[in-house]
TrEMBL record:
Descriptive protein name: Cobalamin biosynthesis protein CobD
Residue spans crossing the bilayer: 54-74, 151-173, 288-310
Membrane topology per record: Multi-pass membrane protein
Function: Converts cobyric acid to cobinamide by the addition of aminopropanol on the F carboxylic group.
Keyword Cell membrane: yes
Amino acid sequence: MLTGLSLPELAGLLLAGVLLDLLLGEPRRWHPLVGFGKLANAIEARLNRGGSRFARGLLAWALAVLPISILAWLGAQFAGLLLHAVLLYACIGLRSLYDHTMPIVTALRTGDLATARTRTSWIVSRDTQDAQEPDLAKAGAESLLENGNDAVFGTLFWFLVAGGPGAVLFRLANTLDAMWGYRNARFNLFGRAAARIDDALNYVPARLTALSYVVLAGAGSRRAWRCWRTQAPAWSSPNAGPVMASGAGALGVSLGGAAIYDGQLEQRPPLGEGPPASGADIVRAWRLVLGATLLWLFLACAAALFVYLWNHDA
């Protein structure tokens, strides 16, 4: 392990970090990612000007991510094992996915479209002011499936690779992609480095996430696999495609399709098979993400127990 920690230690810390997240949720005040976002905005405002935008974007990424990641690594060397679990808690977003999407479900169940539109606009970049229930349900389910990888499984993967500092580096890089990785006049060149680095860091976790959705689909596993293999290549994102296609196939619903961004209608490739998403499918998407998290925890703990028994017998 890159951390110098044993697999049993990593598995125990992984479990502790996830439990902290489920019990405490994201901090109400002084959220570290909110503070990082302000830092990133300040760096971008200073560097995203003039020529050599790609090089400036790469420099901005390094200035935003590397010092904090190095500090996390130094802290982990001196503060002991528990800091790894605390760093994971600060980075993972499993509970926040629930907290941000379940109010949408409640609003849809009571027919409160105004609240559902507002709540949905907090988690997606598409326009929601005129969205109807199927549009909001589709947006909520897609956000859960994709962010299950970005906010949960990618973080868990890099924690297992490099402990708390690995989770920090991944989550900061993913946050910069969400902030700068747009193909528009402002960010097309400046944010390209952030987008490509996130693609590289997410490549393996995204496919493990998609595979987890296939495994948990039960009778729909073949459908989830088929959607992954046939639909994902049509998506421009090399990582969102497999995750969302597999997840939609696992749920047996149709996602993707039309969505409005900045007032313009975009026809996105289809995802999944079956009826259009409803509010209940947001709950099913959350349960799929939670089930995949439990699967990862089980596999990590089982591997740790095997290593422990093997070393003990030896």
